[in-house]
Write a structure and sequence with these properties.
Length: 77
Amino acid sequence: MPGELTREALGLVVIIKVRCKKCDAETRLSLVDLNYDGLFRCWKCKQPHIFVIENDKIKYFQPLSDEKYGKQLELDL
């Protein structure tokens, strides 16, 4: 399922598998914290996404337009 997140616990690091909603490419991200709120850009098609993980559960994962991605980057700075 595109956008589905799964995890494997490896010591203190959590590996999150993210599937791009546009091209279905899988990316693995390592997180030290089980909570994350931020941006993600697919390595293959470059589609920007925003996602929120709380207590090791996905709360939100959606693609963004390039314009919204740029605005979100400005807000994060």
